[in-house]
Amino acid sequence: MAVITRYVVEHKGVEKFVTADKKEADQYDKMLDVADNLSEYIAGKGISLDPSVLENLTIMLSKNKDSLTKLLKGTSAETLLSSEKADVVELDKKQRKPN
Question: pTM for this one?
């Protein structure tokens, strides 16, 4: 019989993420906290969005906080998106290499 440690990230009473890696669970939990803060900020500015749209938007922004920071510092979206696309292509190449 094996003992398996699972870390479950629960958000607003809903199980959102399960992993065996505590660090990964902590990062995901922090990302959800940032998304909640963004939701409050957006609502506080008087912008009304459908709740599911707001949740998707804030989670996407939270997951991409490094890119968002670069955008706010003046990097163009085109430059950033092409850089991210190159990163994905490079990662894909690494994953395809035969062992």
Answer: 0.73
